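Folds vary. Our protein:
___
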Amino acid sequence: MQFLQKIIIFVDIHETMNIRFSRELAVVAEYARGEAMRTGHRGISVSHLMLGILRQAGNAACTALDSAGLDRREFKEFIDSRIFRSRDVPFSDLEKTGICKSAQSALNLAVYEALKDGSEEVTPLHLLLAISHTEGNPCAEFLSLKGVGYSALRPEPASKPEPARSRKQNIPSAADIADAIEAEIRRTMHIPVARPKHFN
């Protein structure tokens, strides 16, 4: 919730309620669903989002990983070794998969990263930067082992962003922002946001 509260500082109602995920990020999410099923999970976690980024390849997030000196294949194998289950999820259970809370939180942070950049869309790079903030998952473990953090993955901005203009209008609550993000996940990615305990 802390990062969602920071989002409020950066945006007004119009900007907040028009959250958009890029086509690349939608593809990453679809890949993440496939990776979740491949590794035997019905809930799409942060690790599966990272596997989706790695699977897409060629995106700015993968370029950032390369620039930081990380081996993407090694990253994938490391995640697999931590989360792989002996039985995959059958395709017939596709509609029973959903985004767990940890992954939704990462997407929330990705929105924050996009807002900091002044970007109109949330991209795989924003998601990677968000993932670098997370803890207690194989992605965070791998990045820690390699000594790579947020600053190493974030590209240097071409120019300093203009100072935020003063805002006097009413600002939506963190819950409103979270609802807007959830709606965009459903609309763009066509993946249900998980609520049941077995998705967590």
About this structure: Confidence is low (pLDDT under 50) at residues 1-17, 163-171, 195-200. The chain has eleven helices and two strands. The radius of gyration is 17 Å.
